[in-house]
Amino acid sequence: MTNNPFLERSPLPYELPPFAEIHEDHYLPAFERGMAEQLAEIAAITASDEVPTFANTIAALERSGQVLTRVSNVFFNLVSSDTNERIQAIEAEVSPRLAAHADAIHLDPALFGRIDALYERRGELGLDAEQTRLVERYHLRFVRAGARLDAAQQARLRELNAELATASTEFGQNNLAAMNAATLILDSEDELAGLAPAAVAAAAENARALGHPGKWALSLQNVSNQPVLADLADRAVRERMMAASLARGFDNGNAELGARMTALRAERAELLGYPDHASYAVADQTAKTAAAVEDMLARLVPPAVANAEREADELTAALRGADPNAELRSWDWLYWSERLRAEQFSVDGEVLRPYLELERVLWDGVFHAAGLVYGLTFTERTDLVGYHPEVRVFEVFDADGSALGLFLGDFFKRPSKRGGAWMNSLVRQSKLLGQRPVVVNNLNIVKPAEDEPALLTWDNVRTLFHEFGHALHGLFSDVVYPFFSGTAVPRDFVEFPSQVNEMWMARPEVLANYARHIDTGEPMPTQLVERMAAAERFGEGFRTVEYLAAALLDWAWHRRTHPDATADTDPETFEAEALHKAGIALATIPPRYRTGYFAHIFAGGYGAGYYSYIWSEVLDADTVQWFDEGDLSLREKGDRFRADLLSRGGSVDPLEAFATFRGRAPQIAPLLTRRGLAH
Predict the structure, then answer these.
(1) Are 441 and 407 in contact (CB under 8 A)?
(2) For residues 95 and 458, what is the distance between their CA atoms, to the nearest angstrom?
(3) pLDDT for position 679
(4) What is the CATH architecture assignment of 353-488?
């Protein structure tokens, strides 16, 4: 234990975890030490004979558990980004213990008694606004965690939380295994017709790395509609790819595990005084009520479906131009959509790729935009190492040249990384603890063959900008207390800053800077830029339906009540009935995620919260409109957005902060216009 690097604050710049010194054997002892130390710190708080004060109770809580925080931040990023059997075994062991540890704190009657006393007297304590909100948020957290339940109810709550923690870990591990197992192995290069030469070479290298030399391997992303379906010309191969994608989790028990988790969540919600888990979850979000979420989703479904049906008619006509008797299937949609896009707008995804090379997009796009809007500059720190050889470390400097924090980029797909893209904090900014931010972005860009450039799709570029929006949210944090740091905001608000950051990818002053041909350096032709802007609106019906179907599936699972949710449920039947009831059951557009691989809601924090992407997009579209209006310069607007929203974390009510920034409450009209739903 004396050599365990988690036991002390890191001596590296910004307290970057000393990854070169961290070994797998350090994790479990650090978790155990961290939990024991925090419980001892809590015991010291509750044993005090002093009258509860903000300093001896709330601030003391904020200082507690630093060893546990350090190991948790590193370990759970690794669980997602570079796992293995040993890491998975530790995760399976520690997850229920961490749930029990959280319960030991939240269900400590002496600790809650002190917090409750402060809450009742909060107006008399001379606290500033951030301190007052911290007292209120701690009180709410403890109440929602069961602090007011009786002993028998708390005992059952502990059981539920432990079982859910174990199930969530199992779901995530099953999902990664299923995704890797579903990799499509092809015997002939002819089966990859339609793919660019670089993509064919990457598939060959992927097959070699997976133990299939001389073959070609197409690994899956954690979505239903695999991006490669847009290019594969062989319809039979497309069908095999889609079948492999949609079957994940239904042949290894993961879908049933997800259904079981929703039953456990329903019981827990009832125990805590809510009719269902969705009502429990949304009560602490900006939406506040289940009715508010349902009203918005119901408003969006009919025009989205109508748009998708019009698109389906166009695609069917194109398909039958090649095969007069063919019926449009789900595995045809992306392929024929790409053909129509190329025909109507003369925009071919493969024509775009040579203009979208990763290094240029990163430095001359993402980082350049951050400089234009916020004045940031970046320096790659090759002297600092990450948790994997592919991880890169960048130091971030503010407009005045002062050091701001570290940004880590982990861009490529690998079998040890879960699908999707995300941001994590390795160190959270806090004035109380004297810490500055260290954040990481994970993506799943297909790694090119050795010595080949990484050429991106337009969707890859969007993801890069999106995730960096989360990174900025963490980097710009300027709060006193770690409770409020960075992205510690309601789930249906957290996607707002990242969605706003997507706007810069297509802005002329940014696009012209990074979209240059990999061989010639020539900028993307103006006419191609114009056609691409028009093509951006193409297929909006598909994208909206695909998303809404997943959001409504999540919602349906979590509107189940206890004890009805405990009844045996066939996940496929439940899905079909839920989508039909919501009016969004289109056979040609499966939900973006099905139950068996819906990691957001079963292995992440989005249970009854997947609606949050479009809820946040209301704020995003309204904010993009604001950036297009008024006389302020771009830098002035960036500083205003940063000061009013990005720097505040959870230290203010998010919608109140938005109203201060915008001068009014958010309006949905800009979103409806963007999505082609305003009629």
Answers:
(1) yes
(2) 37
(3) 66
(4) 3-Layer(aba) Sandwich (3.40)
Q: Is 467 labeled as catalytic in the residue annotation? A: yes
Are 42 and 111 spatial neighbours (Cβ–Cβ below 8 Å)?
A: yes
Q: For residue range 165-180, what is the model confidence (pLDDT) as tens digits?
A: 999 999 999 999 999 9
Class of domain 5-148: mainly alpha
Tokens 């997507």 label which residue?
502
Phi and psi torsions of 574, nearest 5° = -60, -45
Residue 515 has what pLDDT?
A: 96
Reported as type and span, the H/E element at residue 144 is helix 129-144
Cβ proximity of 111 and 45 under 8 Å = yes
pLDDT tens profile 219-262: 999 999 999 999 999 999 999 999 999 999 998 999 999 999 99
pLDDT, average across residues 568-590:
96
Q: Hey, what long-range contacts does 279-283 have (CB within 8 A, 24 or more apart)? A: 280/144, 280/608, 281/491, 281/558, 281/607, 281/608, 281/609, 282/492, 282/608, 282/609, 283/144
Q: Is 160 left (phi over 0), alpha (psi -120 to 50) or beta?
A: alpha
Going from N- to C-terminal start, the domains of the chain cover 5-148, 182-247, 353-488
The catalytically annotated residue of 170, 205, 294, 467 is: 467
- The β-bridge partners of 405 are 396
Is pLDDT of 347 > 90? no
Is pTM beyond 0.90? Reply is: yes
Dihedral pair phi/psi, residue 399, rounded to 5°: -60, -30
Position with higher pLDDT, 527 vs 539: 539
Residues 6+ apart with CB under 8 A from 499: 466, 469, 613, 616, 617, 620
349 vs 49: CA distance, rounded Å: 68
